Amino acid sequence: MIVILLLVIIAGLTWIVFMYKEAHVNRVIYQEYCFPDFPRSFGEVRIFFISDIHKRQLPDTWIRDMQGKADFVVIGGDLTEKGVPLTRVSHNLRLLSQIGPVYFVWGNNDYETERHDLDALLLDHKVKSLDNTAALFESEEGEKLWLLGVDDTSLGKDRLDWALADCGEEGFRILVSHNPDIVQKFTEKERISFVLSGHTHGGQIYLRPSDKYMRGGTYSYAHTLLLVSNGYGTTFVPLRFRAPVQTHLLSLKRKEV
């Protein structure tokens, strides 16, 4: 009986160690997306997308490997949470800024911190906060790409109508929303071609299918294409199972037909 109990304890500890290691790896997924309406004059646009950093600290060496590989960086919310030192958040923003210009949307856990302090850090590191607003990229030929961002939907702070009002009628539209539920709030009339989101952690400890926590992956809708990231960090417990860490280097191109 004692031997069986010891084996059970060892197996349990081994499983916990495995899940802890899974939660602390550095992983980049390289993904290419082709759209028939992507502006030809942009050629290829490369985005480094990272979401749900939470308590983790980015490693210098890993970030240096990403330099020169992306045109800009998108943080998909939950950059931090309650109890995370501002020095760690500042460290992460400094490293991400070395990859390229950084754009940020607020997630639900970001509101556990003092908003004024986080706003000040974003400003110090020249990070553009997309609070229900849009940023414009324009090619030499005058074609436009819009990066729209909405505030957190689970807290009822999202105003997609404001972000849409902030961008022009013409151009390719990418929407960043921490919560993937945003896709239920619009149709084809908004002409949003691509959505970047996180929030779900892929379930983090994924034991069975759940309607609440979408797994990391690409989902096709009639009116848009949605990328859900499992995210970089964890919440509640620093463990992962069958929901691996994900960050993304995205290549956006025109689909020739």
What does it look like?
The chain is α/β, with parallel strands linked by helices and 257 residues long. The protein is built from 5 helices and 12 strands. The chain has helices at residues 2-22, 60-66, 86-99, 115-124, 160-165, and strands at residues 28-35, 45-50, 72-75, 102-104, 128-129, 133-138, 144-150, 172-177, 194-197, 217-220, 225-228, 247-254. A 6-stranded mixed β-sheet has the order 1-12-2-3-4-5, covered by helices on one side. α2 (60-66) links the parallel β2 and β3. α2 (60-66) packs parallel to α3. The longest helix is centred in the N-terminal third of the chain and has 21 residues, at 2-22. The radius of gyration is 19 Å and the shape is globular. It starts with a helix and ends with a strand. The model has no long low-confidence stretch (mean pLDDT 93).
List keywords for this structure.
single chain, 257 residues, alpha/beta, six-stranded mixed beta sheet, 23% helix, globular
In brief, what are we looking at here?
The protein is an alpha/beta fold. It is built from five helices and twelve strands. It has a six-stranded mixed sheet, with helices on one face.
What is the succession of H and E elements?
HEEHEHEHEEEHEEEEE
- Note the total helix count: 5
Share of helix among residues? Answer: 10-25%
Q: What is the residue-averaged pLDDT?
A: 93
Distance between the termini: 68 Å
Shape: globular
Unreliable segments (pLDDT under 50, ≥5 consecutive)?
none
Beta-strand percent range: 15-25%
The major pleated sheet works out as: 6 strands, mixed
Strand order of the largest sheet: 1-12-2-3-4-5
Structural class: alpha/beta
What does the radius of gyration come to? 19 Å
